[in-house]
Amino acid sequence: MFALSKNRILVFCYLTIFSLLTNRAYAQETIKVDTSNFSYLRLDPSNAIGGKVSDFFSEIEYIPLETIKESLFGSILRLEVLEDRFIILENSNHFILIFNSSGKYLSKVGTQKEYLTELSINRFTKQILFSNDRGKTLTVCDLNGTVLKKIKFEANADKTKTTSSQMIFLGNDESVGSNYYDNIEINSKYYKPFSKYLIHYAKSDRTVYAQALPYGKLQNNLDVINVGIGPLTLTDIDTASFYSKAYDYSIYQISPKTVKLLYKIIFPAYFSVPTNFATDTTLDGNRYQWFEKHPDAIFCVSNFFRAGDNITFKTTSWNSTKEDDLIYNTKSGTLSALRHIEQDSLSYHLPIFDETSAISNKNGVLASDKDNLYLSLSSLEMFKFYNLNLENKSLYPTKLLSYLKKGSKKDNAVIVRLKLKKSL
Amino acid sequence: MSLTFRIRVLVIFFLLCIAGISYGQKNNITETGSIIGISRDSLHNYPLKAATISVYNAKSNELLSFQLTNDLGKFQIKNLPVDTLLHVIATNFGYKEAKLKIIIPSGKKAFNVGVLNLEREKWLLQEVSIRSVIPPVQMRGDTLEFNAAAFKLDTTAVVGDLLQKLPGVTVWNDGVITVNGKKISRLLVDGKEFFGSDSRILLNNIPKNSIQKVQVYKIKTDNDPLNAKSEMNVVLKAGNKNALFGKLGVGYATQKHFAGDGMISYFSPRQQISVVSAANDVNKTANNVNTLMNFNSFKGEGINNDYHSDFSREGFNIFKGLGFTFLQDFNKETDTRKTYYKMNNLNTDLFYSNNENTTNQEIINTIALNDDHSITQTGTNKWQNNNSGLRTNANYEKRFRNGFLYTNYSFANQKSNNSSKQFNSSFNDLTQENSKTSSEQNGNNDQQSFSANIRGSVERFFDTKRHRKRLVNLDFYYNFVVNNSKQRKGIVTNFTSTDVSQDRYYNRIYLIDLKSSTHTINTVLRQFNGLFFSTVPGISIDINNILTLNNQNGNDNVSDMLPGTSNLYETNLDLTNKSNLKILDEKPGINIAHTYNKSLDNRYGTSLTYNILLQGQFYVQKNVATQSIQNIYRSNTFFVPTARVNYTNDQYGEFKNELTFEYLTSVIYPEIWQMAPLIDRASIYGFTIPNISLQPSYQHMATLSYNFLTQTGKNDLNANLNIAGGLTERNITDSVYYDALGRTIRRYINGDNRQSLILNGGINKAFKFNNHQLQFSGNTKVEFYEYNTLTNGQDYLTHTKIFNASAVFNYTYQTKWSGVIGQYYTGGKSQQGNLNPLTYTTWTTNLGLAYALPRSVFFNTRVNFNKTKATAGTPHIYYAIWNADIGYRFLKGSNAEVKFSALDLLHQNNSVINRLNYNNITLTKTNVLQQYFMLTVAYYPRKFNKNDK
Q1: Binary contact (A340, B600; C-beta < 8 A)
Q2: Which of B123, B142, B602 lies at the smallest CB-CB distance from A378?
Q3: pTM value?
Q4: How many Cβ pairs within 8 Å bridge chains A and B?
Q5: CB B704 within 8 A of CB B645
Q6: Is there a contact between A116 and B626 (Cβ–Cβ < 8 Å)?
Q7: Distance (Å) from the C-alpha of residue A188 to the closest C-alpha of chain B?
Q8: At A221, is the secondary structure helix, strand, or coil?
C-alpha cells in the first residue's frame, strides 16, 4: 500500500498483498451473488441540493473529545460507535483512543512504534481488534483498552488463513474481509483457495471458510485506487456489511449466507469511467494516469452507509468538488450534498462538515448507526465558525459552551452526531 | 557649499516629497459607508462560499472594492461612497453573475443589500461563457485567481505593478514574492519559468495588459491547512502567447562618456530567445545574460543601484557585453502543477564581454614592526588591462516519474592583455633606510576551460504491474573539467637603495603553460539499509563516495636578458621548470540520519533530525618536476566527520522556526607553490621561500543557526541569527621577514591554532497598508579572529575584529513613488601582540527617491554619504555621491524615452579604500569615474499581441 496525494485527498492505492502459504488445499464454500432484486440509482452529483441543517436533521449533538495530554490526537481516520463508546483510529500518531459517549477520555491503545493502520470491532463480543505486524499477531482488547489477548498466527504458512486483519464482524465468530485484484496463479506458492475472490468469510482465528465475488483473468492486474472508508462498511443490519465494488459503482450487501447486489449507481457520462474500464487490460498499470487525464471521472465510491430510507456515500475524482459527500433519499429521489447544508439555529450556527482541515476530504461520514450519522470537525473549524457567529448569540448546551469558552483551535476534534429525518 | 548644508538640503527635499505623498492621500477622505449581504445558489439552496462581490461606481464604471464571501456566504465591504449609485455584482465560477443597483444613504453606516442569488450555468459551458463583468478575484476550485483586467492600471504597467496592487501579495526589493507572508516557491508564465529563475525579468517586462490572470495555488503535499506552500502562475491572454520585447538605447555625456544598450527577446509556449548587448564607459557592467536583460528591462531603472553606474569601481573602464540565450521546451504537459515534474528542456546561452581598464593608483602601506616602528611603503601604479571572455553553456534537463537527468556543457575562453608601470619606495623609520623600485610589465594571458557534467537521480518505487519495489535510491554526478592556460609576460625592474650593494636590475621573460584535467565522480546510495533490512522508521543510512582525480602539466620557461645586450636572452635555470602534478582525493563515507517527526493534523508539524557523516579522506599529491625541490610525494589520510542536528517547528498559521547545529571538519592541504615555490627575486618587495615540511591544517567548524518567520499573513516578519566558531589546528600562517630596505621574504609555516568566531543576524519586516508599502531590512555581522604570525622572527598573537551593520527602509506608494533610506557601517581593528592597533571605520548613508508618472515624466535621485577613517590619528575622509535622472516617456505605450542623468553631482567621488591585514594597513587612492551629465534616448520595441500559431 502506498499513499498518493491529490485534491486534498490522501489516495490509498491498495495493491495486492498476499502471504506465504503451504501447498495444502482446502475446500471452501463459494457464496453466489443474488442479482435478482437491485435498483439503478441515476445520480447527478453536480445537481445535489443544499438547505438548512434543520431541513435534514431532527437532532444534532456536538461532542467535544476531551483534550488532555494523554488524549491529544490529530484527526480521526476511522470512527466506531459502540454502545457508550467512541473508538477512534487517529491520523497523526496512529493510536486507537477510546472516549465515552460524552467525549470523556478513557484510554489509549498502541504506541508510537506500533503505528496502527487498522481498527476492527466485534460488536457481538464487544472487543477491539487490530494487527500491526502484517497479520502475524492479532491483539484483542476490551472496550476499556485493556489487552485481553495477543494471538500469534502462522497465517502466511497456512493456506486456509487470511492475513487481512481489517474485519467486519457479522456474528460472534463470523467476519468478512475483502481482497484485492491479484495476478497470483494456482501454481504460485502465494496462492490461496480464496485468492481469486474479492470477499472472504473468516472465523476469529482467521480461518477462511467461504468466499464470494470471483474475478476473472482479465482483472488479474486491475489496479484499484481506494480512498475513504471502505470498500466494506457497516450496514444498519448487525449481520450484514456493504461492499462497494471498484469502477462499476455497484453496492453489495454481504451477509453470512448471501451476497446481494443492492444498487447500481449510474453517474452522468462525464463523471463515469468507460464500461470496459475494469476489463481493459491495456489500462493495466496505467489507470492512475488515466484518471490524471480524466480528472472529473469518479474512481471510488466509499463511506457507504444507510439510515432508514437515506443512503450516504462519498464519490472521489481527481478534481475536488463540493458535491462529493452525498445523501440520497431512496423514496423521494432527493440528492443532497453535505457540504451544501447550511448551519442554522439547530446546529447553533456551527458547521456540520469540516472544510478547513488538511485531511477533511478523507473523512466525510465516518460512521452510522441506523438513525444517526457521525462526522468529525477539527477545533480549527469549530472556532473559526464560532468566531464568525459571535453576533448570533446561540444558546449552546453546557458542554459545548464550556468547550467553546475554555478550549482553543488546537483542541481535539469534535464528533457531530446527526439524526437524519426519515423523509427528505 | 559645506557637506552638512548639502545634507540638510537633501533631507528637506525628501521630507517635502513624502509630505506631498501624504497630502495627496488626505484629500481623498470623504464620508463612507459599508454594505453587508449574502450570496446564494438559489436553485440548489445553499450559500455560496468564496463568491466574488465587486462594487463599481455606476457612473464611471470604476471598481471601488471587492471581496470574497466568507464561509457563511456573507460579505461586508467598507469604505464605499455614500449617496452614489453603485453596482454590486456577485460572480462565482460556474454561475451567471447577479447584479444590484444601490445607493448607500448618507448617515447609514451599514447598508444591507440582502441576498444575491446566483443561477448556475450549464457546467459544460463554464469555460466558454462570456461575462459582462470580470470579477477581480475568484476561487476556481482551490486556485485563487486574480483577473488582470479588473485592476485598472496605466496601459504601460508591467506584471510587477499589477502584483503590487493585489491584496496579500508583497513584491520584495530583491524580486522575492510573498503571498500572505509565505514565499512563492516558483513564479511561472503559463507554467514555465521565464528566461531563467530571476523573476525580475518577468516582473519588469511583461505588460499587465497581456495578462489574463494571476493564479496562486497550493502545493498539495503541504500539511499546513492554513498556509501551504504556494506557486504563482501568470496566465497570458490567448493572443499574447507569442511576443517580442526589447530596447535600443544610446546615451552621450560630458567628457565623451557614452552608454548604449540593446535587447531583443522573443518568447512562445515552446521557445524563449534573447539577444542582448551593452557598451559603456560609465561602469555599468554585467557578467551574465540575465544581468544584461535586467539592464534592458522596460521598467528596469529606479532607486535600485543595480542598474546604475558603479562609482566604487577602480579606474577608467570600457565595457562591452553581448549575450544570447535560447530555451526549447519539449514538455507537452499543460497542467502547470505538473510541468516541473515533467520537465524536458534544452537551454543554451552565450556571453561575450570585453573590459578595458586604465587605472592609476597611489598606495600607502604601513607595516607595523617590533618596538613601535614601522615600514612605510608608497607607490604609484599605472596599468592597462584588456580582458575579453567568451562563455557558452548548454544544458538539458529531463524529469521522469522516478528520477531526473541533467547534463551540462560549458566552454569559456578568457584572454587578457595588460601593461603596467609601477614606482614604489620604502622607508624604515628605525634604520632610516629607504629603497626605490621602478618596474614595467607587459603580458598576455590566454585561458580556455571546458567542462561537461552529468547528474541525476533515480528513486526506488513500487511497480504496480509487478507488485514489487524496483530500482534503488541513487544520486550520481560526474564532472570533467579541462583547463589550459598560456601566459606570456615580460618585466623590467630596477631596484635602488641606500645600500648600493643591494641594487638589482632584472629584464625577464616568462612563458608559462599549464594544462589541467579533473574528473569528479560523486555517488550517494540513499537509504541503503532499506534494500536489505526491514526499515526502522525515520532511520536512513546512505553510502557516499566522492572521488576526484586531477592531473596538471606545467611548463615554465623563464629567461633573462643578457647584460649589455638589447634582445639576447638566456634561460633562467632556477625558474625554468617542467612539472607534472597528480592529485587523488578520495572521500568515502557513511551517512546515518534519524528523523523524528511529530505532528498533529491542523495544528503543528515538528521534525528533529540527527545526522552524522562518518567520512574519511585519502589525499595523495605527487609532483614530478625538473626543479628537484618540487619532486614531492605526499599521502595523507584523515577522518573528516560531520554532524548535524536540525529542529523545525511549524505552528500552522502562526509561525515557523528552525534551529540547526552543525559540526564540520575539513583539511587544508598545502599546495606546491606554498611548500616549494621557485624563488623569483624579480618580485622585489615580496617573494616566497620554500618550506617543504609544511603540514596540512585541520579545521573544525561549529555553527548554530536560527530562523524565524511569521505565517499570519499580515505584515510579514522573518529573522535569522547565526553563530559560527572555528578552530584550525596547525594553521598555515606567514613567517615574514622585512629587511631594512622594506623587502618582504615570506615563508608559509604551521602556526598555532587559529580561532574564529562569527556572529551574524538579520531581520526583515514588511508593512502593507492601502497603497503604501514599507519594508525594513536590518543586518549585522561581528567577526573575531585570533592566530599567530611571525614577523622578523618574533611570534605575535594577532587579534582581528570586524563589525558590519546595516539598516534599510524601502517605501513604495502605488506604482508611482518609491524611496529608500539606508545606513551602513563597517569597521575593523587588528592588533599584533602589544603593537599599536590598526583600525578603520566607514559609515555610509544612502538615500533614494523615484517618481514615475505613466507615459510622462519620471525622475529618480540617489545619494550616498561616505565617511571613512583609518588608524587613529589620521583625519576622516568625507565624500558624497549624488546622482539624479529625469526623463520623459512618450509615444503610445511609452515606448520611447528621453532621459537626462546627472552623476556625481557634487564631484566628490574619490575611491579611497582601506584594506586591513594582521600587521599592515593599505590605503589606496585610485582614479575613478567622476561627475558627468548624460543625455540618453531609448526605444522599447514591444509586440505583445502577435498572432499565436
Answers
A1: no
A2: B602
A3: 0.80
A4: 97
A5: no
A6: no
A7: 14
A8: coil
- Per-residue pLDDT reduced to its tens digit, B7-22: 544 454 444 444 444 4
Q: Which of B602, B604, B607 best probes binding to A when mutated, by most A CB atoms within 10 angstroms?
A: B602
- For B199, the enclosing helix (H) or strand (E) is helix B199-203
The beta-carbon neighbor of A357 closest among B70, B124, B602 is B602
Of A49, A74, A288, the CB nearest to B45: A49
Return d(Cα B5, Cα B880) in angstroms, integer.
12
Cα-based distances in Å from B235 to B128, B214, B257, B337: 16, 6, 42, 13
Helices A398-406, A379-388: inter-axial angle, 10-degree rounding:
90
- Rounded distance, CA A247 to CA A260, Å? 18
Q: How far apart are CA A267 and CA B193, in angstroms?
A: 40
Whether the CB of B602 is below 8 Å from some CB of chain A: the reply is: yes
Per-residue pLDDT tens for A151-205? 887 766 778 888 777 889 999 999 999 988 888 888 888 888 898 999 999 988 7
Of B46, B141, B603, the CB nearest to A50: B46
Query: Can you tell me whether residue A363 is helix, strand or coil?
Result: helix
Q: From edge to edge, which strands make up the β-sheet containing B63-68?
A: B63-68, B52-57, B85-91, B98-103
Whole-angstrom distance, CA of residue B635 vs CA of residue B43:
84
Domain encompassing residue A7 = 2-420
Give A388's contacts in chain B (Cβ within 8 Å).
Answer: 70-72
Query: Cell match 492505492: residue?
Result: A13
B603 close to A (CB below 8 A): yes
Q: Is B919 helix (H, G, I), strand (E, B) or coil?
A: coil
Given A8, A46, A385, which is nearest B71 (Cβ)? A385
Q: Could you tell me if B142 lies within 8 Å of chain A, comparing CB atoms?
A: yes
Provide, as residue numbers in chain B, all residues whose Cβ is less than 8 Å from the Cβ of A74. Answer: 599-603
Grid cell listed for B80 = 464605499
* Global ipTM: 0.79
The domain that holds A186 is classified in CATH as: 2.120.10.30
Q: What are the grid coordinates assigned to A414, written together?
A: 469534535
Mean pLDDT of B447-464: 89
A287, closest residue in chain B (CA to CA): B464
Burial class (CB in 10 A: 0-12, 13-18, 19+), B437: buried
Strand order in the sheet with A372-377: A57-64, A414-420, A372-377, A367-369
**Where is average pLDDT lowest: A260-274, A390-404, B263-277, B861-875?**
B861-875
From start to end of B42-94, where are the E strands?
Answer: 46-47, 52-57, 63-68, 74-81, 85-91
Q: How many domains does chain A have?
A: 1
C-alpha cell at B201: 525579468
CB contact under 8 A, A115 and B71: no
Contact B123 A46 (CB under 8 A): yes
Q: Contact B45/A183, CB-based, under 8 Å?
A: no
Q: How far apart are CA B901 and CA B884, in angstroms?
A: 6
Cβ–Cβ below 8 Å for B44 and A48? yes
**Nearest chain B residue to A344, by CA:** B72
Task: Using alpha carbons, list the distances in angstroms from residue B793 to B570, B685, B731, B737.
Answer: 37, 18, 17, 7
CB B342 within 8 A of CB B333: yes
Residue B773 pLDDT: 82
Contacts of B70 in chain A (CB under 8 A): 388
pLDDT tens digits, B23-80:
444 444 467 889 999 999 988 889 998 899 989 899 888 888 888 888 888 898 888 8
Secondary structure (DSSP) of B720-737: EEEEEEEEEET-EEEEEE
Burial of B567 (0-12, 13-18, 19+ CB in 10 A): exposed
SS (H, E, C) B277-298: EEEECCCCCCCCHHHHHHHCCC
**Residues B464, A285: C-beta atoms closer than 8 Å:** yes
Residue A249, all three cell numbers: 459503482
